[in-house]
Structures are given as C-alpha cells and as structure tokens.
C-alpha cells in the first residue's frame, strides 16, 4: 500500500483540498511553491498511463477544476502541471502555482511551511472551489 493509499484510507493525515468518490487533491508537504497540490486517483495504479481511459480522463478533469481554484487562491501567473511518477508508485499529478519557469524545477530545494500555514493554504483553495 502506497503512502497515497494510506492518505486515501485515512491512515495518514493530509491537507485535503477536494475529494470525490474517485479522486483526491491534497497539499504536497514538501512543496515547490505555496499551493502545490497533488491530485490522485483513489485507485492505486503505479503509472499514470496505465490508468484506464475513464479514470485517466476523470483525473484530468478533476485536476483542471483544482487548478482553477489554486489560481484564484494563490497569486500566480499560471498553474503548472507535472507528472514525474518516480517518487511514489501511485499515479499523481503535481499542480504548482507559477510565476516563472524555474518555479517548477524539481531540483530546487523544497519549501517548508508550518502546519498552520499549510492549513490556511488548503482552506484558501477549498474556499475558491466553492465559488466555481
């Protein structure tokens, strides 16, 4: 069972932004930027392109909705999308607020936020979702 499946099962806490029956969006706790969100299918599949078409397209649509809320909640020019797939063997999409290209460089040092800061960021994004 991956760390993401443990988050889905409620065994590990996460700063959840949105959840449906099939998908979950939560803050990356080692973000590249404030508002860096991971979007996952609840179904544990290692490789994004191994998802069946329905789950894959649903995940992309869910990510689009979350990206819109991030853009409203976090000052940025765009929300970047990255699929690396090497860190956790569970398909996931990174949504990262961007103001310059280097903001999405995964070789940069990760940021560190307090629990209160992470909670406030999650709250801002959830609030933005309510107004879509």
Topology:
Blueprint: H1 3-8, E1 16-19, E2 23-27, E3 37-41, H2 53-73, E4 78-82, E5 93-98, H3 115-130
Helix pairs in contact: 2-3
Task: Explain this structure.
With 132 residues, the protein is an alpha+beta fold. It is built from three helices and five strands. A five-stranded antiparallel beta sheet has the order 1-2-3-5-4. A hairpin with a 3-residue loop joins strand 1 (16-19) and strand 2 (23-27). Helix 2 packs across helix 3 (115-130). It is globular and about 35 Å long. The mean pLDDT is 95.
Number of strands: 5
Q: Could you report the average pLDDT, rounded to the nearest whole number?
A: 95
Largest beta sheet: strand ordering: 1-2-3-5-4
Question: Strand share of the residues?
Answer: 15-25%
Radius of gyration from the alpha-carbon trace, in angstroms: 14 Å
Taking the alpha carbons of the first and last residues, their distance comes to 34 Å
Low-confidence stretches: none
Helix and strand string, N-terminal first?
Answer: HEEEHEEH
Structural class: alpha+beta
Assign an overall shape. Answer: globular
Helix content: 25-40%
Major sheet summary line: 5 strands, antiparallel
Number of helices: 3
Descriptive tags:
single chain, 3 helices, 5 strands, 132 residues, alpha+beta, 19% strand, 5-stranded antiparallel β-sheet
């Amino acid at each position: 069972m991956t760390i993401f499946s443990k988050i889905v099962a409620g065994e590990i806490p996460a700063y959840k932004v949105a959840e449906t029956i099939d998908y979950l969006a939560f803050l990356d706790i080692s973000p590249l930027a404030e508002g860096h969100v991971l979007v996952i299918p609840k179904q544990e599949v290692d490789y994004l392109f191994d998802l069946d078409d329905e789950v894959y397209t649903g995940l992309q649509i869910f990510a689009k909705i979350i990206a819109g809320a991030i853009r409203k909640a976090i000052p940025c020019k765009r929300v970047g999308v990255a699929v690396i797939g090497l860190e956790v063997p569970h398909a996931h999409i990174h949504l990262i607020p961007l103001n310059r290209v280097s903001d999405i460089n995964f070789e940069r040092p990760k940021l560190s936020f307090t629990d209160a800061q992470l909670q406030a960021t999650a709250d801002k994004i959830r609030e933005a979702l309510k107004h879509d």
